[in-house]
Automatic annotation (TrEMBL):
This is Cytochrome b/b6 domain-containing protein. The chain crosses the membrane at residues 12-34, 54-73, 93-116, 167-187. Its cofactor is heme b. It comes from Novosphingobium humi. Belongs to the cytochrome b561 family. Its main location: membrane. Residues 9-204 form the Cytochrome b561 bacterial/Ni-hydrogenase domain. The keyword Membrane applies.
Length: 206
């Protein structure tokens, strides 16, 4: 649906926006902690690795579900018109940034899912633990399917853990750049152009 004369975003749209932002704020640090503690030998380090893995993997799945719902919601509901202070370039750039966000919010969980699928139990690794999805995501008591076949990390094939992990990391850095553009645009509209863009997303109406 196109832009409408609505003065602000409704509650569901705002909840999806800020809920996604909060989840990403937890998801990214958890991913770094998971990586840093992977080879930990002490009990505390191993415990931190398991906890951060559970948080990162579970939130990743929940984010994927949320972004699919968010895209459906976005396509079936009107949105407020761009502020009158925006130039044509700013409107196009904002749309491009939003499109990149949706693409990355799909690509990052999917690449992470593929990475876990490629190295999960059955390829010489224990199944990663997840909350809400059974005892673990991929094991006998879980119900998360493999979206790629499990293979050894050093198998002579392209689509293995290293490939999906690199896609995941590249997507993360690209997402950081897109987020910086998004935040810069919102702050520019609020403090320089004095538009109501940020207010509409925060409380619905100016």
């Amino acid at each position: 649906m196109g832009a409408s004369a609505a003065s602000g975003w409704n509650r569901i749209a705002r909840a999806l926006h800020w809920g996604t932002a909060l989840a990403v704020l937890v998801e990214v640090p958890a991913g770094f902690i998971m990586s840093w503690t992977y080879a930990a030998r002490d009990a505390a380090g191993k415990a931190n690795h398991i906890l951060s893995s559970q948080i990162h993997h579970t939130l990743g799945m929940l984010l994927l579900i949320a972004v699919v719902f968010r895209i459906v919601w976005r396509l079936t509901h009107d949105r407020p018109s761009p502020p009158a202070t925006s130039t044509r370039f700013e409107v196009v750039l904002a749309a491009a940034v939003q499109g990149m966000f949706y693409l990355l919010l799909l690509a990052l969980p999917l690449s992470g899912w593929a990475a876990l699928s490629s190295m999960a139990a059955g390829a010489g690794y224990p199944a990663p633990e997840m909350w809400f999805f059974g005892t673990d995501g991929f094991g006998p008591n879980g119900f998360i399917p493999h979206i790629v076949p499990p293979v050894a990390w050093n198998a002579p094939v392209l689509f293995k853990y290293g490939f999906f992990a690199r896609v995941h990391i590249w997507g993360l850095w690209l997402g950081g750049g897109v987020l910086a553009l998004h935040m810069a645009g919102a702050l520019k509209q609020h403090f320089i152009a004095r538009s109501d863009v940020l207010i509409r997303m925060w409380r619905g109406q100016a």
